[in-house]
Design a protein that fits this description.
With about 900 residues, the chain is mainly alpha-helical. It contains 36 helices and 8 strands. Strands 1-2-3-4-5-6-7-8 form an 8-stranded parallel barrel, surrounded by 8 helices. The chain is globular. The two termini are about 30 Å apart.
Length: about 900
């Protein structure tokens, strides 16, 4: 399994892939026997031939796999899946090896570039000081690898890193190779399948582990680099009060369509985060006690330490004791015990105050260099992570709040809130919000769904504010959606109500988002309540599922423009919250390109974005990866805020309007208006089978039924990526581009060259074109789709060919990603290992649909894992 190392001049990457592939091959022989190894090699050879000549070789391979017993299919699927996982480790390691060597001063480069464009140094520093980048971890069923294997993969990456150290002896190298061999054998002997679905708390633990093991450790270094760059280029470093990056989470708070997220789960998720935070701060204070042995201190420290010989250690010991009490108190709460009354820390200020007192004293006593080490790092952690590492957002669908108020108004004899028009709803909400009497009587209980909504608000009222972020309303479309949550917060006793964030997802809701904000801010009560600050979330997943990728991208762009104009005209401080996923069809393009392609003025130092599914591990799982990701967000937000992209020309807008209309019509005509297309989708993809696997805690559908409208965007996209057709990211694009390119290709060339938004959109589509494989998708049609539905597959393959041709004409490329040879090689490396997994999956789906479930379910999930690894971004 070692011949297919990337065809590249970089010998180190070739060596790493060769080493890991060779060790996996040894493992197959030692643990399963040479027969399996030779079978893997034979299938891989036939796959390569099939890629070269198609047709007969592909049929031969399909026939070979269809004759295998289920047990053998499990072993083969595991072998190919694990190679792809190991190849990913090698590539990720190599990517960051190159980053360390070539872009160590990236923050400085960005600041230098801004200064060279006549941007004032004070303006650069001021923007960094007020920067507010929020990274929000969410749980979605696209990170399907067990945490056990993820941890082993991390150890392999660490061993590869150690192999790069200069001066290793032959004995050292042999020892590291043996350690790699040990890890790969352990991976092979481990069960990669989740036998039980994860609970929301399982997902919350996984999200917190990323903070604990990676982000917590690397953020101080990133901020040190930022501080040094500001000092070097702007004459003054980063202030103690600055917190350019903060972290949030939806895990345990996102109840939109997930009945498993209960009020108790939300409460426990907050306790878990606080508990881990207390533990991390305890460890840091313990290290500081060892370091700060100095005896000279200012009067404040000496007084607080009662003139002890080593005063800093005394103050830090007192703080550490309080953290220990806090840990014990939280542990008791998590174990459902009634905790004893302890000296519990309930505000980050209580930690930071002691640290700042020590910091000031050290500077006054000439030991500033010591203060600017670990102590400064911990102070900055206080600013960025707060008391709970992540602030938990709460998300619920707008209709659930409408339903709650409807039951309440009916109970009170006021009529049906749900049947009222928007004007009457707003009149009622405004009157109640301005009034003093309670709306909900003590005798009101409510139905199950309504009781859950009210119970959630009541639980939130008893959670410390530092543990909570915002209340996000999915499927928001009216101003009343926001005021309804404001009223329910008040009625349920929330003394410090959460900021309410409408999430606009569908195209028509995006286009009406400005009107919603205009109506909200015309209400005096709301203007006062908001403090002229508003966060608005825009959803990439459902907009693309609703209208297609090209139309959604343009609709999102226009909504941001309109919201930015509204904020400027009304003096509102606006923060846009981008609900992106991992795939192109869910807004998943590289962070730098995504930020640079946003409308001028829409960032202004503020940005919030979801990090979803497999993206969390890909961006933050390893220390080097996390450092690069955090640096990219800081530099991209800084650059985009101070050197905005150009305003699109009027003719560019007209072209986008025209392309968007045509693309949306083409997409919806097939997906939404053709009643048989759903039958084809469910036959040609593993969507139904994926819903039964133990991947995530959340149901695949918002509501019961077969309608595509009720299917979540993630399984919709995930299913198509498994078949390698990648339909959601390109369907409709060809017709949209063609309507303009036929008359004015030069116009599109200009847009691609001069407009970052259009260039990023085409780059993302090119990525999808490179990953799509019509021959593989054809195999699903041939084996799984009834004869009377196969015309859909033929039609889609024809549409893809047209998209392929017109996109390359616009980008003036001979092949997709020819300007990204590293990515191109990466895809080519994976194909001979991903193709067999797809053909295995086709055979397994055919058997499952015939009723054969013996070992087949296990093999199917392994192919899902492997294809996800081969595609790199899946949902």
């Amino acid at each position: 399994m070692i011949e297919d190392a990337p065809d590249t001049d970089d010998a180190r990457l070739r060596e790493d892939v060769r080493l890991l592939g060779g060790l996996l091959g040894e493992t197959l022989i030692s643990q399963e026997g040479r027969e399996l190894y030779e079978q893997v090699e034979r299938i891989r050879a036939v796959t390569k031939t099939a890629r070269a000549d198609g047709g007969k070789a592909a049929d031969t391979l399909s026939g070979l796999l269809s004759a295998l017993p289920a047990g053998t299919m499990v072993s083969l699927a595991r072998a190919f899946s694990h190679f792809l996982g190991l190849a990913n480790i090698a590539e990720q390691h190599h990517q960051h090896r190159r980053v360390r060597e070539s872009r160590a001063w990236e923050i400085g480069d960005t600041i230098s570039s801004l200064l060279s464009r006549n941007i004032d140094a004070d303006a650069v520093r001021a923007m960094v000081e007020h920067m507010d980048v929020g990274l929000v971890i969410t749980a979605h069923p696209t990170e399907i690898r067990r945490r056990t294997l993820t941890q082993k993969y991390h150890r392999i990456a660490s061993l590869l890193d150690r192999r790069d150290h200069p001066g290793l002896s032959d004995r050292d190298k042999a020892g590291l190779e043996q350690a790699l061999r040990r890890e790969i054998v352990a991976i092979w002997e481990s069960d990669e399948i989740r036998r039980e679905p994860p609970t929301p708390l399982d997902e919350a633990r996984s999200g917190l582990v990323v903070i604990e093991q990676s982000i917590w450790n690397v953020l101080p270094g990133v901020l040190r680099n930022l501080d040094a760059a500001l000092e070097a280029y702007c004459g003054q470093g980063l202030s103690l009060d600055a917190a350019p990056v903060r972290f949030g989470s939806w895990i345990g708070g996102d109840r939109d369509g997930n009945p498993n997220v209960t009020p108790e789960i939300t409460q426990r998720a907050c306790l878990m985060a606080r508990s881990m935070a207390a533990d991390l701060y305890w460890r840091e204070i313990d290290e500081l006690r060892r370091e700060l042995s100095m005896v000279r201190a200012n009067d404040t420290v000496n007084q607080l330490a009662r003139n002890a010989h080593e005063p800093y250690r005394v103050l830090l010991r007192q703080l550490q004791d309080r953290l220990e009490s806090t840990r014990r108190w939280l542990e008791a709460k998590l174990n459902n015990r009634h905790p004893e009354e302890l000296d519990v820390i309930d505000s980050i200020d209580q930690i930071e105050e002691t640290l700042r007192i020590c910091y000031d004293s050290l500077h006054e006593c000439g030991a500033g260099i010591v203060a600017n080490g670990r102590l400064l790092d911990v102070i900055r952690c206080c600013r960025c992570f707060g008391l709970a590492l992540v602030r938990l957002d709460i998300r619920q669908e707008a209709s659930r709040h409408t339903g709650a108020l409807d039951e309440i108004t009916r109970y009170l004899g006021l009529g049906s809130y749900e049947s009222w028009d928007e004007a009457r709803r707003l009149e009622f909400l405004e009157r109640e919000l301005q009034g003093r009497r309670p709306l909900i009587p003590e005798s009101f209980e409510g139905s199950g769904a309504v009781a859950e909504v009210l119970a959630t608000f009541r639980v939130l009222a008893n959670i410390p504010g530092e543990s909570l972020g915002a209340y996000v309303i999915s499927m928001a479309s009216e101003a009343s959606d926001v005021l309804a949550v404001e009223l329910l917060q008040r009625e349920c006793g929330m003394q410090a109500p959460l900021p309410v964030v409408p999430l606009f997802e569908r195209v028509e809701h995006l286009s009406g988002s400005r009107a919603v904000m205009e109506r909200l801010f015309s209400i005096d009560w709301y203007r006062e309540r908001s403090g002229l600050y508003q966060e608005v979330m825009i959803g990439y997943s459902d907009s693309a599922k609703d209208a297609g990728q090209l139309s959604a991208a343009w609709g999102l762009y226009l909504a941001q423009e309109q919201l930015t104009d509204f904020a400027r005209e009304h003096g509102v401080s606006l923060k846009l919250f981008h609900g992106r996923g991992g795939t192109v069809a869910r807004g998943g393009i590289p962070a730098r390109d995504a930020i640079r392609s946003l409308p001028p003025g829409s960032v202004n130092g503020r940005l919030r974005v979801t990090e979803q599914g497999e993206v969390v591990q890909a961006k933050y799982g390893l220390a080097d990866t996390a450092a690069e990701t955090l640096t990219t967000y800081i530099t991209s937000v800084l650059e985009t805020s101070l050197a905005s992209p150009p305003q699109p020309k009027a003719e560019w807008r007209e072209a986008m309007d025209q392309m968007s209309r045509v693309a949306m019509h083409s997409y919806r005509d097939l997906v939404q208006h053709n009643k048989r297309f759903l039958d084809y989708f469910q036959a040609a993809t593993p969507e139904a089978e994926l819903a039964k696997l133990n991947i995530g805690s959340r149901p695949a559908r918002r509501k019961p039924g077969r309608d595509i409208a009720h299917l979540r965007a993630i399984p919709w996209i995930f299913a198509w990526s498994q078949t390698r057709l990648m339909l959601p990211a390109w369907l409709g694009v060809g017709y949209g581009l063609k309507v303009v390119s036929e008359d004015n290709m030069d116009h599109l060339h200009e847009m691609e060259s001069e407009w970052p938004f259009f260039a990023a959109t085409l780059d993302a589509i090119e990525m999808v074109l490179a990953k799509t494989d019509l021959d593989v998708a054809f195999q699903y049609d041939q084996r799984l789709v009834p004869q009377d539905l196969r015309h859909f597959g033929q039609d889609l393959r024809g549409r893809f060919e047209r998209v392929y041709d017109v996109v390359l004409k616009v980008t003036r490329h001979k092949s997709p990603l020819e300007h990204e040879p590293v990515t191109q090689r990466s895809i080519n490396l994976r194909n001979p290992y991903t193709d067999p997994l797809n053909l295995l999956q086709v055979e397994l789906l055919a058997r499952i649909r015939r009723g054969d479930n013996s070992q087949v379910q296990d093999a199917l999930l392994i192919t899902v894992n492997g294809i996800a690894a081969g595609m790199r971004n899946t949902g």
